[in-house]
Amino acid sequence: MCAASAFRTTADNLTDGIRAATGCITRQLPSVTPNPFFAYPAHTISLGQPGKPASLRGPAGPTGLHFDFRLDYQSGDGSDEIKSQSGSVHVAAYEYRLLDHDHRELLVYHWQPGSRFSGPDHPHLHISASLAAQVTTTTRRAIRLDKLHLTTERVTLAAFVRMLIEEFGVRPIHRDWRRRLTRADAVLIRWQIGTEE
């Protein structure tokens, strides 16, 4: 199998895992586009058209919440590269967003390593909120969570979708969503975390 064909086969497996995860909460299909900002051949998988996140539904109808994501992957050398008979692909960056009705960010999970991105190289979470912390018996201090990079482990898209269903009451499209997400997570974790098949 030639290198280009092997890359496409491996990338298709990654894309299938992503579609399985997002298909649990939206009928909007992810799209794959070339990404010119990486040294090696790279692509970006995102949800539909930019600026058009998926509307999320709950048991009683629309929740007013929206979801979108972007995941960059590339071929070639990388610290998280997965090498197999079907080619080599590794996740280079991701962003998963939970948005409100006006498309303002509520939660954003990022992993954007390297000089192409501003901010820390480690995976992190942004929360669009502010806390009034009682720091002494008479003093409160505002803590702007939206300005902090709260450290996380790497998070798969399937794990994010599971959180939307279990914690935010998003209605799954399929009755067997748990099985679908477990299978999608098993596929995605190979590229995301860097474990072999």
Layout of SSEs?
Layout: H1 3-22, E1 30-34, E2 42-47, E3 54-58, E4 61-74, E5 82-84, E6 87-99, E7 105-111, E8 124-127, E9 130-134, E10 140-144, E11 150-151, H2 157-168, H3 177-192
Antiparallel strand pairs: 1-2, 2-4, 3-4, 4-6, 5-6, 6-7, 7-8, 8-11, 9-10
Helix pairs in contact: 1-3, 2-3
Q: What's the short story on this structure?
A:
This protein is of the alpha+beta class and 197 residues long.
Can you tell me about this structure?
With 197 residues, the protein is α+β, with helices and mostly antiparallel strands. It has 3 helices and 11 strands, in the order αβββββββββββαα. Strands 1, 2, 3, 4, 5, 6, 7, 8 and 11 form a 9-stranded antiparallel sheet that branches. The protein has a two-stranded antiparallel ribbon with strand order 9-10. Strand 1 (30-34) and strand 2 (42-47) form a beta hairpin. The radius of gyration is 18 Å and the shape is globular.
